[in-house]
């Protein structure tokens, strides 16, 4: 199987947009501190680039979680890495790579709210609103809205590959391959 990656959003454009988001966070939380909580592994590049441009006191932590949804299940979520630091009383910014159906966040956000953060905001590099089945998910800091495309790079993977690409790309497969989405 051979795959070709075409650039959807260049690294220059991605980094410029992340800087705008960081400036917005610096302004919104002026005089306060923020705690970035990244969802592994996809958010890593986005979170690091965002953190580099934050001028307010910032702490960082990561979580890893998996949601399981059967045909009749309401969805449960298990942490394979729980938050290492308490989020109680903190200004938490949850950092995600992409919001797709919203299934993961629809379970994760209520769980985090039970941990009593001072506030909980959501930053995501990408949003695919056409795939959303949870319209209640509110994005506070958004990089780019994209169409219903399977994207890789800048932390996003295709079967664990392509995360390290410095741009956001689209996987194109040859005639024998089948595009994943
Ligand atoms: P959701 O729970 O359906 O919103 O799924 C969100 C997760 O699915 C993201 O954190 C990604 O790990 C994965 N995902 C969704 N769309 C893509 C994509 O286009 N490329 C790579 N991963 C994706």
- Cα Rg: 17 Å
Order of strands across the biggest sheet?
A: 4-3-2-5-6-7
Question: Tell me about the biggest sheet?
Answer: 6 strands, mixed
Helix content: 10-25%
Number of helices: 3
Order of helices and strands: EHEHEEEHEEEE
In total, the number of domains comes to: 1
Strand tally is 9
**Helix- and strand-based class?**
alpha/beta
> What is the first-to-last residue Cα distance?
17 Å
Please give the CATH class.
Alpha Beta
Mean pLDDT: 91
Provide the CATH architecture: 3-Layer(aba) Sandwich
What percent strand? 25-35%
Question: Could you explain the architecture of this structure?
Answer:
α1 crosses α2. The model has no long low-confidence stretch (mean pLDDT 91). This protein has 3 helices and 9 strands; from the N terminus they run βαβαβββαββββ. It is globular and about 50 Å long. The longest helix is centred in the first third of the chain and has 18 residues, at 11-28. With 181 residues, it is an alpha/beta fold. The protein has one domain (3-173): Rossmann fold (3-Layer(aba) Sandwich). The strands form 2 sheets. It has a 6-stranded mixed sheet. Inosinic acid binds at residues 42, 96-104, 150-151, 156.
């Amino acid at each position: 199987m051979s795959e070709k990656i075409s650039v959807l959003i260049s690294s220059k454009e991605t980094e410029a947009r992340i800087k705008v988001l960081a400036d917005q966070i610096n302004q919104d939380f002026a005089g306060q501190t923020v705690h970035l909580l990244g969802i592994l592994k996809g958010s890593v590049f986005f979170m690091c680039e965002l953190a580099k441009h934050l001028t307010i006191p910032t702490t960082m932590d990561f979580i890893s979680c998996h949601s399981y949804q059967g045909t009749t299940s309401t969805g449960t979520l298990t942490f394979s890495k729980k938050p290492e630091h308490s989020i109680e009383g903190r200004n938490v910014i949850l950092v995600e790579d992409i919001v797709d159906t919203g299934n993961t966040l629809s379970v994760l956000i209520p769980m985090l709210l039970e941990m009593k953060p001072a506030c909980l905001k959501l930053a995501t590099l990408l949003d695919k609103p056409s795939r959303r089945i949870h319209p209640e998910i509110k994005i506070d800091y958004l990089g780019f809205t994209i169409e219903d495309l399977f994207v890789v790079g800048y932390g996003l993977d295709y079967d664990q590959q392509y995360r390290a690409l410095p741009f956001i790309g689209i996987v194109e497969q040859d005639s024998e391959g089948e595009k994943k989405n």
